[in-house]
Amino acid sequence: MRGVVRGRVAYEPTYEAMRDFTAARTADTDDELWLCEHPPVFTQGLAGKPEHVHDAGGIPVVATNRGGQVTYHGPGQVVAYPLVDLQRAGYYVKEYVFRIEEAVIRTLMHFGVTGHRVRGAPGIYVKLDDPRGHARIDPQPGPDQFQGLGKIAALGIKISRHSTYHGVALNVAMDLEPFSRIDPCGYAGLETVDLSTIGVSTTWEEAARVLGQQLAARLAP
């Protein structure tokens, strides 16, 4: 997998570039991993509902063809787009999602933070009162499933011709206020956090480096 650090780039041209790359790739095209940072933008997945955006203000809302609902991208967030041929890699979509989430968990571990999965709610979460603790969680589906948790990484993917695009966003040190204008990933009241708010001081470049390494290792065939 070839890593490409694109840095700060506009969202819509990057989205179009991913689609073009996927449409043009052949069985011999190398997989790539794009690491990006976007100016402020809300993106809606295929399941996105307009009522989950309460007040976009001056931030654009872009409809996309990824899975999931609404999320926010902005400066201080590492957005990773794995462009993977799943047929060649030899695993299916469910395992692909698991591997991405595991890469985020291992990235957080690098920074001394414990990441958690929540059944039925893709992405990675941390315990707000003990982000470095190792006690397991077992949230049950329902209105309280996110109690005591903050979402630190959101995931939304698209599969076309056995190939993936879109990906995962890890919050590093960003202005979290725009998340209050939406129901993140369709969940009203879901708290969103970043590494900075839970006491981890690092740079975008370092977080991107670690996440990129973890994704490359976990997504290998």
Distance between the termini: 10 Å
Arrangement of strands in the largest sheet: 1-2-6-10-9-8-7
**Secondary-structure element series:** EHEEEEEHHEEEEH
**Averaged pLDDT:** 95
Which labels suit this protein?
3-stranded mixed beta sheet, 4 helices, 221 residues, alpha+beta, BirA Bifunctional Protein, domain 2
Molecular structure report:
The chain is α+β, with helices and mostly antiparallel strands. It has one domain: 2-Layer Sandwich (BirA Bifunctional Protein, domain 2). The chain contains four helices and ten strands. The protein has helices at 11-24, 86-89, 93-110, 204-218, and strands at 2-8, 32-37, 41-44, 61-63, 71-73, 77-83, 116-118, 121-127, 149-160, 163-171. The longest helix is centred in the middle third of the chain and has 18 residues, at 93-110. The model has no long low-confidence stretch (mean pLDDT 95).
Q: Short summary of the structure?
A:
With 221 residues, the protein is an alpha+beta fold. It is built from 4 helices and 10 strands, in the order E-H-E-E-E-E-E-H-H-E-E-E-E-H. It has one domain: Bira Bifunctional Protein, Domain 2 (BirA Bifunctional Protein, domain 2, 2-Layer Sandwich), CATH 3.30.930.
Topology summary:
Blueprint: E1 2-8, H1 11-24, E2 32-37, E3 41-44, E4 61-63, E5 71-73, E6 77-83, H2 86-89, H3 93-110, E7 116-118, E8 121-127, E9 149-160, E10 163-171, H4 204-218
Parallel strand pairs: 1-2, 3-4
Antiparallel strand pairs: 2-6, 3-5, 6-10, 7-8, 8-9, 9-10
Helix pairs in contact: 3-4
